[in-house]
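Allow me, if you will, to draw on your knowledge of protein folds for a short while. I have a record of one protein: its chain in single-letter code and its fold written as discrete structure tokens. I should value your view on which stretches of the chain appear to form regular backbone elements. Thank you for your consideration; the sequence and its tokens are set out here:
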Amino acid sequence: MNKEIQESLIDLHLQRAVFGLDADEKQTFESLLADAGVGLDDSFDLAAAAVGLIDLQIDEPLPPHLQARVIASADEYFASTAAENETVDEDDFQKVLTFEPKRSWSWLGWAFAAVACVALAANIWVTRIAPAEVAGPTKTPEKTPVKLTPEQELAQLLASQASLVKANFGVGNVKELKDVGGDVVWSDEKQTGFMRLRGLPVNDKTKETYQLWIFDKTQDKATPIDGGTFDVDKNGEVIVPIDAKLKALGPELFAITIEKPGGVVVSKREKIAALAKVETQSKTNT
């Protein structure tokens, strides 16, 4: 057998054991076997099958008819092997003691079956045994949270089933601010709310800021709840989220004062830009 035919047969044995042969490959394979004067070597199939059984989980017992066939085949095989052993003569015993490996096709099959084992083992390991180690743990793509605008957040609050406190803003004690208006919406349940303001002038952030105060029925009137500071940087309507520093469980009045940058802990209420008094009937479910 020349080297080219031998290598072709090895390749086709590997292909047959690991992936199978199509019609053309099968015809070529049988033709090469005939030209080489050798038969089909099943050692490649045995090696591939052994690798395929790695970490195999057997959930069901072997079918009875197949189990019987396996046992019968095993008995037949070992019976024939025992018969052969009984006829071992002195010359055969001497051959065993002076064993020299024969370069038969079967020996080559087992040698190159190792290559099939490696190829099949890699294939099985990637596709069945350790997919998590190769591809890494499956991760659900994290969705980037969508940042809502104050307008959208206000719309969500109004559309919710929460009980809302509502009040309309009017002018305070600053004579220059005659056109201030708007409304306020607050939820005791969600502890969140928004002010919708009109006519509040753009402030110079280096000199002053606006600050909200929530006069709550649970809080002393001398120390209303700080609702946060905010600036107005455009003319027209602005929507401002309320940032209450304490829980407001029963707002009765909302007041916007003009304070120094950063706000104050307790307001002197010298400059009240706007007031919104809560009417009892304004507390509704939407």
Observations:
- The longest strand covers residues 163-171.
- Confidence is low (pLDDT under 50) at residues 95-105, 281-286.
